[in-house]
Automatic annotation (TrEMBL):
Keyword tags: DNA-binding
Domain of life per record: Bacteria
UniProt domain HTH tetR-type: residue ranges: 6-66
PROSITE patterns in the cross-refs: HTH_TETR_1, HTH_TETR_2
Name used for this protein in its record: TetR family transcriptional regulator
Lineage: Bacteria, Bacillati, Bacillota, Bacilli, Bacillales
PANTHER family, A to Z: HTH-TYPE TRANSCRIPTIONAL REPRESSOR SCO4008, TRANSCRIPTIONAL REPRESSOR
DNA-binding region of this protein: 29-48
Gene source species: Paenibacillus terreus
Pfam families on file: TetR_N
Amino acid sequence: MTQTEPDIKMRILLAAKKLFAQHGYDGTSVRQICEEACANIALVSYHFGGKEGVYQAVFEHFFPVKELKSVNFADLDPIEGIRLLVSRIIRLTYQDRELSFMIQQEMLLRSPRRQMVMNVLVEVWGQVRSLLLRGKEEGVFSFGSATNALVMVMSVALSHKHMVNFEDVFDDEKTGVDIIAAEAVRFIFLGLGVKEA
């Protein structure tokens, strides 16, 4: 049975995502990607134009830009908008750890691919900032600096990614993504002075 073109492309993307997450962009070769995907090395150039193209395709395919753009956050009240965005961010980083690690690596290394990652992240976190400002204007949020409030929201929304590094500190209680998201949102709202949420 021959593989279809979409099957081969997806195998390459999945292999690349796994390897980029484990070894970083510079530590991953096209040969390694093709070995992991059981694909001919020439297919990376043919389908993606090279390693940089594979990286960009991984990010575009797996980051849920369409899902985030499908919601008009300007139509939501600030509380519901923050709840929805933070929950989705947590679910993304929890459910696709490989993509999350890729993003984190590019941000920390300030690599040439950082701008591609930032183009999407700025849009997401810009929505959060807009909701914070609108919530403050409407009197539902209380904070001094919008920048500091945004940093705190970002920190809480992304903190669970580091839980694996501190497992010795935690008890044996296993927490699912829905509980993590609900607790994070509750913590954020307490910090923003929301009375009932």
